[in-house]
Please model this.
Amino acid sequence: MGIGSAGLFVFLMPKWGDTKLAMYDVFSVLDRSSEVSGKHSGVGDGSVEFADVSFAYPHCPDKAVVRNVNFSVHAGQSLAIVGPSGSGKTLLLELLMKFYHASKGEVKIGGVSFAEFSAKFWRKQIGYVPQRPVLFDTTIRRNMMYSKADVTFEEFQTCAKLVNLQEIDDWRRSVPVDGEERKRLALVQALVRNPRYLLLDGIPSDCVKPDVIGGRTAIFVSDDDAAIMQADSIVVLCNGTVVHQGDHQSLKENSGVYRSLVDSASF
Model:
């Protein structure tokens, strides 16, 4: 071993202990048993139900963000979740994505407890567009391929036209940095897989039309009253609790909370 190699060895020795600790942390995560490894592989009648669901973040277990949430949506129907900012709307979608487990109660799909479904199986059934969509800094085509590896340009164009992106005639260009077009592309990315369910957060009103939803079960969060009025059913969330569920007209007549949200446009 030369002087240079010896010097490098002396330099690296103190870091070896840190490396071993880091490797231990990595392998401890890889060896961890999944808590979402259920084996159920059917969605029954396709309905979605929240049954007395409460949730608190692990670092603050005594402070529930949503409490005793109850609502249901039949297969093929659309449901809008509305409420003041901070009421827990996005969290309900995140629970449906299996990002978190309910602290109390349970979510049911086709009458079957959510715990019976693996995250891998369930997420294959879903097209999810979050509030801030994640698209990679590459071409539109490659982003579509992350959703469906063998997607064709014709499939892309069909879905793009549904969400009013007809002007895209070359999917080899880069995705837009931000803005509404990016959100619409994220929805196209979800649609090319032809999912059974759509979970949409903050989507434009023309993207929840029947020809876009296409008979799927759709649950969406929106502050656009034009989008909300198109839903088959609306859940009104306030301070983490469902206060009403119904259609637009019945809620305007019977829910003071919903009426005030509509009048002030403060969804």
